[in-house]
Amino acid sequence: MKKWLIILVAALAVGGWAYKKWPTWMARAEVSAAEARPKTAVVEQRDIRFAVPAAGEITPAEQVSVKPEINGRIEQLPVDIGDDVKKDQLLFSLDDKELRNEKLSRETEIERAQLQVEQAQRNFKRAEELFQENLISRELYETGKTEYALARNALERSKRELAIVDERLTKTKVQAPFDCTILTRPVSMGQAVSGSGGFNSGTDVLTIADLNNLVINAHINQADITRLYPNQVVQVSVEAVSGLTVTGRVERIAPQATIRNNIKGFAVRILLKDVDKRIRPGMTANIKIPVATADDVVAVPLAAVFSERDPETFQTERYVYVLKSEGADPERRSVRIGVSDFFFAEVQEGLTPGEIVSLEPPKNEADRMAKLAGQGSRNDGPSQPRATTTTQPAATGQQRGGTSQGGSTGGGTATSQRPASGTSRN
Predict the structure, then answer these.
(1) If you placed Cys at 95, which of 33, 73, 140, 259 could pair as Cys (CB 3.0 to 4.6 Å)?
(2) pLDDT, position 360
(3) How far out from the chain centre does Cα 121 lie?
(4) Is the Cα torsion angle 202, 208, 213, 218 positive or negative in sign?
(5) Measured between alpha carbons, how far apart are the two ends of the chain, in Å?
(6) Number of domains composing the chain
């Protein structure tokens, strides 16, 4: 018992000591991380691609639920799930014995009606001759004429009934309307099925789709929909197939917004080109909507670009700190920013490749910005400078942005400060 008590006291002592030392350890870790983080960057020539991400579900462009048009029993079902079927190939057939027997009965009725027509025609001709010689009354003549007309009508009705039976016989065999793949087959051979004309809309025998033509049904945020237009080419990556990237073409954009998951956006239909066999319906696709591109331009990391608003003119200045030589104070230099993505910004004026820029402001500038930010939080008047609102591209259904007071600072992660993504090249 005394042994366990000693162990418990020792454990509590070690825990208390670790609790007191924990803030010191965390501070040292933060200092080490800050020292390991790069503080400078070299101005370079590079390509910048800025695209807005979105997501959608892959579905077949043509998908059909196959149902019989008449009631019956499945007699043939030569296809199964996953089978590739050519156009006009048999999908399934129904038992047609009852209809064939009915067809024979209709053909017999037609023969009987034909004989009746011939007899009524002979009687009518005889009555017509007798009536012309005034040997019979008009009433008998009209009776013969009516019987002849009724016999012809009966013959026509029998022929139409036979045509209906023939039409129903053609509906016992269901063929593929286009080249397709069998997606589902919920019934088996011998099972009774109901026609689509019934009260329950019929039995689903098969579901078929053309897997060579796939589309993506995406819900694009209203903030990004203006960047899309019909026939626009977009990049598509499939989550389930690692490393696979295909191209798609915007086919349709819904004219009216809808709300999905409490986010207002527009339904967009994107047609995939050169569909890979590994892509299946139901997979999730990530779409990159191109917004701006710049090839072989002068660029710096976003963390190297700072911004500050003039309190009098309210004009926003973008600038960087250029390192001329080791130990010398960095030079603050105004720049003009063009296209930017999540990591780099194009510099249209103010820098040349090979120069070195600082990712952090000088200590005196950092102190001044912190002081301005503190004053701005206490005074909402226009006398204090404010940094421009920085807007980053939104992910699917999300928008991010923030406004800070005082001069904005770089450093930290590459996406902590960045020019507005909508800046156009001049």
Answers:
(1) 73
(2) 82
(3) 70
(4) positive
(5) 82
(6) 4
Statement to judge: residues 127 and 267 lie in one domain: no
Q: How far is the CA of 249 from the CAs of 256, 276, 297, 393, in angstroms?
A: 20, 15, 28, 21
* Biggest distance spanned by C-alpha atoms of the chain: 145
Q: Is it the case that residue 276 has pLDDT exceeding 60?
A: yes
Q: How many CB atoms lie within 10 A of CB 143?
A: 15
Structure tokens belonging to residue 383: 């006398």
Of 275-279, 347-351, 362-366, the one with minimum mean pLDDT is: 362-366
CA–CA separation, 355 and 302 (whole Å): 15
Which structural domain range is residue 178 located in? 62-95+173-211
Closest CA to 305 of 163, 164, 143, 419: 419
Helix, strand, coil percentages (3-state) for the chain, rounded to 5, are 30, 35, 35
The CATH number of the domain holding residue 130 is 1.10.287
Q: What angle do CA 317, 322, 324 make, to 5 degrees?
A: 150
- Provide the pLDDT for residue 329: 79
Task: Please give the model's pTM, rounded to 2 decimal places.
Answer: 0.59
**Neighbouring C-beta atoms of residue 213, cutoff 10 Å:** 15
Spatial separation of the C-alpha atoms in residues 60 and 244, rounded to whole Å: 19
CA distance 6 to 280: 64
Placement of tokens 């503080």 in the chain: 39
Q: Using CA atoms, how far apart are residues 142 and 130, in angstroms rounded to an integer? A: 12
Q: Which of 38, 39, 49, 34 is nearest to 299 (CA)?
A: 49
Q: Are residues 163 and 277 in the same domain?
A: no
Residue 206 belongs to some domain of the structure: yes
Structure tokens at 81: 């799930």
> Mean of the pLDDT values across residues 186-198?
87
pLDDT bucket at 226, cuts 50 / 70 / 90: confident
Shared domain for 196 and 236, answered yes or no, is no
